[in-house]
Specification:
Shape: elongated
Distance between the termini: 42 Å
Largest sheet: 14 strands, antiparallel
């Protein structure tokens, strides 16, 4: 444990009993950051220069844990059944006290004191079931897989604004429960061909649902009554149906190697706002994703490779969530549910 309050611990376990193998591990890490001072200064130039100052202090506590479990069972010499689980969870708590001022020349525009508390959790949990079937033909393999994944991203916030000059005081509570759930089914077949060739083919289906529910309450001015402030995006769901088929080919001739593949991938998107149906929308995407690699083995320890790959990245709930987190009114953050998948092409020269 360090002077700042950081500590971690972990362990692992592995055994095999007959046809069953078990592997497990767990790690925990915690970090406490004591009160530390901060200062922020910004100048905005226009007809007149506006100066914004923010001085104060903050502290936070972060902890996360990771664990995995894998169990495999040999049904016979050609069939293997595997069950796996992975868990990664983190949480945080933070507090801040700030003195905020804005000036234009010598004129004081507004001043207030801000007190903020926030906490939340994040991470993921995955479970997978795999069946692997081999044949009497060397390197021929059929794999059928299913995976379930759950990723929470929840947070709560409290803000108190106390007026000093030209700023309406208020107290605000924000609660946001967000998560993504994903079901994936996949089948893959690999078979060797004559003359050092290999053919691979498969299909995959993913159903991914991201959702967010928000509550916000305020006390304005001197009032002690908490008032509910519903927002159009307070109940939001983002559902994706992803389907793909792919094929790959590999060959080796003397010192040369070649691999190529292509994946056809479609996505059906459905976005709904419970309290604002006028914002609902649907969209469809279709992409062809190629890849290729050419290699040459100079000797047993050196190989030259040249490759091309395309990858598709889909935004998670932390990017899609339209919840407007204004716990700090000077640092507002929110996601964009209209984001499209991101495509990235890159070359890989390697020696």
């Amino acid at each position: 444990m360090s002077a700042l309050g950081r500590y971690n611990a972990g362990g692992n376990f592995s055994t095999k009993v007959g046809k069953m193998g078990i592997t497990a591990n767990y790690n925990y890490n915690n970090y406490r950051n004591p009160w530390n001072d901060s200062e922020y200064y910004r100048e905005t130039y226009g007809t007149e220069t506006t100066v914004f100052k923010q001085n104060g202090r903050s502290k936070n506590n972060n902890g996360h844990q990771y664990g995995s479990l894998e169990v495999s069972y040999e049904l016979d010499s050609l069939n293997l059944l595997s069950l796996g689980a992975n868990m990664w969870r983190g949480n945080y708590k933070s507090k801040s006290e700030l003195d905020v001022r804005a000036m234009q020349g010598d004129a004081r525009l507004y001043e207030y004191d801000q007190f903020t508390e926030s906490q939340g959790n994040y991470g993921s949990m995955d479970m997978n079931l795999d069946f692997q079937h081999s044949t009497s033909k060397k390197d021929e393999l059929l794999t059928i897989s299913y995976r379930f994944s759950h990723s929470p991203n929840d947070n709560k916030g409290y803000t108190s604004i106390e007026e000093i000059l030209n700023y309406t005081p208020y107290r605000q509570r924000n609660i946001n429960d967000a998560s993504t759930q994903e079901h994936t089914a996949q089948v893959n077949y690999t078979t060797p061909l004559p003359k050092n060739q290999t053919l691979e083919a498969g299909a995959k289906y993913i159903m991914r649902e991201s959702s967010s529910e928000t509550e916000m309450f305020r006390q304005e001015g001197a009032s002690t009554t908490w008032v509910d402030y519903p927002r159009p995006e307070s109940h939001f769901s983002h559902i994706q149906h992803i389907y793909a088929a792919y094929m790959g080919y590999a060959a080796k001739w003397k010192s040369f190697g070649f691999k190529a593949g292509v994946r056809a991938e479609g996505t059906a998107l459905n976005v709904k706002y419970k309290h604002s149906p006028v914002q609902d929308f649907k969209s469809d995407f279709f992409n062809i994703v190629p890849n290729a690699t050419l290699s040459y083995q100079i000797n047993m320890s050196q190989t030259i490779r040249l490759g091309y790959n395309m990858r598709i990245y889909r935004p998670g709930i932390w990017y899609l969530n339209p919840y407007e987190n204004d716990t700090d009114p000077q640092n507002v953050s929110y996601g964009n549910p209209n984001l499209d998948p991101e495509k990235e092409s890159y070359y890989e020269p390697e020696l």
